[in-house]
Amino acid sequence: MKVFLTGATGYIGNRLAIHLAENNYEVHALVRNLKSDNIPVHSNIILFEGNLNNNLSVEKAIANCDYVFHTAAFTKLTCNDVKKFYEVNVQGTANVLNAAKNNGVKKVIFTSSVSVYGPSQPHSSITEIHPRMSSYANDYELTKTMAENLVLEFNKKGLPGIILNVSRVYGPGNTGFSNGVNRFASMLLKKRFVFVPSKLKIESNYVYIDDVTKAHILALNNGIAGEKYIIGGENASYEKLFSTISASIQTKNSIVKINYKLLKTGLFLMSLLDKLVLNESSLTPKLLDYLFTNRIVSSLKAVSQLGYEITPLKTGMQQTIEFLKHRNHEN
Fold first, then answer.
1. What is the 3-state secondary structure (H, E, C) of 252-280?
2. What is the average per-residue pLDDT within 208-222?
3. Is residue 6 part of a domain?
4. Burial class (CB within 10 angstroms; exposed 0-12, middle 13-18, buried 19+) of 68
5. How many domains does the chain have?
6. Global pTM value
């Protein structure tokens, strides 16, 4: 069975490409740079150089494929140029959907985010029917919502599409902005002290990477066209997340809390300085608030309809730490 996959050098896409290849799928992977260190390598993976906004490269890679996994997205939340988000997340998705429809693809699995639903309400988990109650926090949320609407529009036009809303992913794989949990764990492995904001009661959802990749194949086999499925893991406060990581590492390294308001003030001053010297800030007050927002979710629909299974946070974190230790040793 042939599948077309975007985002093969990304965190989810790379892991998914390998998982598909190991399960005897022939994967046509569209990549921008054939020399990237994050290229997935397997005899069942065929690389096609190109990008989402080059229709010819998309058409070439998707030819004769039965299914599409569209995981590619522009996720750099510190970017203030909405055009970059729109070109990849909206126009790029439109190009993939058009090519899929033109080539008679049987089903499209679109990787989205739970952030499109906005923050969770007190004592209430986000579900697939959860209405968004707040304005969009950033251009990523906005353009991913626009992309989801495109998938649903094409579904009505005869191209079966399924949307997977993924929560915060952690586990073995490539480094990048999208796996901040891994970055924090890596810091705790290497440093004696790690500083964190004091709002540790904030709760979010953390999903193990292998659960995410398996969910994509489950959606392909069991998913209902036109439906959305939240692909999450365990809901946990930052306090629980950090303590789980520390227990998995079995280290005496200390986590030091910094007053949240004081940290925001410091980030504001640093962002002003970055603007003066034309640097891009790695963390801004706006991004800090985005990261420290309650996002608890329910994956009951995916469990009941797809056969989705959730790896406990403790188990997934132990496997993640072993991966990070091994990678650090190699480096």
1. CCEEEEECHHHHHHHHHHHHHHHHHCCCC
2. 97
3. yes
4. buried
5. 1
6. 0.94
